[in-house]
User: Fold this.
Amino acid sequence: MTYHGGDLQGEQLVIEDRSPRRRRRWILLAGILALVVAAAAWFATRTKTPEAPQGAAADQAPAVTVIVPGAHNVARTISATGTLAATREMPVGVAGEGGMVSRVLVEPGQWVRAGQVLATIDRSVQAQTAASLAAQIAVARSDLTLAQAELERAQSLVDRGFISKADVQRRIATRDAAAARLKVSQATLSEQRARNARLDIRAPAAGLILTRGVEPGQIVSSGSGVMFRMAKDGEMEMRAQLAENDMQVVRVGAPAKVTPVGDTQSFAGTVWQVAPIIDPQTRQGIARIRLSYNPALRPGGFASATIIAGGTSQPELPQSALLSDERGNYVYIIDAQNRAQRRAVTLGTVDDDRVAIASGLSGEERVVQSAGAFLNPGQLVKPQRAAATPAAR
Assistant:
């Protein structure tokens, strides 16, 4: 098509000027489209690439040994303190009128048998009194012999009429009076001898001498108080002070271990008495633990005790599984996604190598057995089941 005139030429020039602009527009649109396609490809690639790191993370996750503790019958232990004492302490004093102590025959720590003489009191005066009474018996016996002979002689003469029956009756009365006086003398002598025997301080039963409070030359009487203290049969005990709530679970026959202060050795015993009352001031009661004699068990000494008071069903873990910080005790458990999770726990009985968990675990969790300190909450791990779980007590 041909254009003529200046106007047509001007129009033709305008058309020629617009053609480059259209090309640039198409180029711009093409560039934008290319950017959109590239961005879509980048986003598509980004959504797929995490799969590779996740698999790599799973491969690089640390392996940890886990245990499923279950629930075991764990004995409940109660700790207590108290004093050592003789189970049956026997004070020994003067039973008679007393006097001056002449000899002391025993020392503290010595074993004695029942009735053994522990000390003697001077009896020089009492011995003379006994001798006088013995002489009176001899006189009374002679009077009785004479009265009996006169009675027999009178009885042989009464039938011949030389002596009246009244005389015979008087002789019978004389004989009976002499016999009575003899019995009185004998009884008096026996009483004196018993009094003299009480001047010997004797052991009321077999046992161990704990204290001695008398020396030769000392004047003693029934008001002098205790001269010796004994432990009957040497039996010892610990009088453990228990809190009011612990008194409710301790029973007679419960086993216990007692450790005197300053000694590393423990002594086995059993609870033989639980006090029926609670001290209203301290809110404590006493459990008496019977112990066999040992020189290390000194009455009056201080000791600690561990009493086994029944059992409860609780999970048990090795001590390596237990962790603690300022927030308290805790363990790491592995959840269903194999991630470590912190779990707070309350401890029960602590043994040499195991710990009972009073609360915080049911026993069915997978618990990290060791190396929990190197884990973080939520960390992915590869759990490996332990070969054996902790055995019940």
Remarks:
- The two ends are 111 Å apart (CA to CA).
